[in-house]
Design goal:
Blueprint (H helix, E strand, L loop, with lengths): L13 H7 L6 H5 L8 H7 L4 E14 L2 E13 L4 E9 L2 H14 L2 E2 L1 E2 L18 E5 L2 E7 L6 E2 L2 H10 L4 E6 L5 H21 L7 E2 L8
Parallel strand pairs: 8-9
Antiparallel strand pairs: 1-2, 2-3, 3-4, 5-10, 6-7, 7-9
Helix pairs in contact: 1-3, 5-6
Length: 220
């Protein structure tokens, strides 16, 4: 994918103009105000080190008066490996267009996550894992993310492992239930669990070692 050039970007919204003019310098300023980025270029400008991965490509069919129509459904994840992650899916009759649409949708869905050391076996105070156990659900799939001690790694299936790595979580145990072969639901259930980390961190008095969003290298 071509490198994004902020100088060539022509924002279509007032929020986009504020980003280009330097009034907004962090994605956290937008997300923590309760707003959503209205343009994918805002994400490209504020999170330049964002990486993209395709989690799955499936053929979906539906009947129409003119006959059976087939589309490609692509599930994608974007993340900077440091507290920012987004997951989404999109469909199109062409696989290339479906990939671009899914990546754009994933950028528009980015969130910050909370990280910490919630493992009773570790308690190192570093943000290498999750600060507490969370559960995410989508359709008939549910996944439980459990804080793990430093050095364990990601004890997870391939789909949640990719998402967690993109989010910057290094050590975690997982327990999944339901039809996990359905990539879309498995990915969105994992994404939902990560959303719960911030919801819980902002509602309850947890440790000062919880970090929401991006952190410096020295903190890990």
């Amino acid at each position: 994918m071509e490198e994004f050039d902020v100088e060539l970007w022509e924002p279509k919204t007032s929020l986009g103009r504020k980003v280009k003019e330097g009034e907004i310098t962090s994605i956290s300023q937008i997300l923590r105000s309760g707003k959503r980025p209205p343009e994918p270029e805002i994400i490209d400008a504020l999170v330049p080190n964002l990486k993209e991965e395709i989690l799955g490509v499936n053929l979906v069919q539906r009947m129409h008066r003119s006959g059976r129509r087939t589309k490609f459904r692509v599930t994608a994840v974007v993340g900077n490996g440091n507290g920012i992650v987004g997951v989404a899916h999109a469909s199109s009759s062409g696989i290339g267009l479906a990939v671009r649409k899914a990546i754009t949708a994933a950028k528009m869905s980015v969130i910050e996550i909370a990280r910490g050391c919630g493992s009773w076996e570790c308690r190192c105070g570093r943000p290498h894992s999750l600060p507490f156990e969370v559960v995410g659900k989508k359709g008939g799939v549910s996944i439980r993310l459990i804080p793990a001690p430093r050095g364990l790694g990601l004890a997870a299936a391939e789909v949640p492992k990719i998402i967690l790595r993109q989010a910057g979580v290094k050590d975690v145990w997982t327990q999944a239930r339901g039809n996990t072969r359905t990539t879309v639901n498995f990915a969105l259930a994992t994404f939902d669990a990560l959303k719960q980390t911030v919801r819980m961190a902002t509602r309850e008095p947890y440790s000062k070692h919880i970090v929401i969003g991006e952190i410096g290298e020295e903190s890990d």
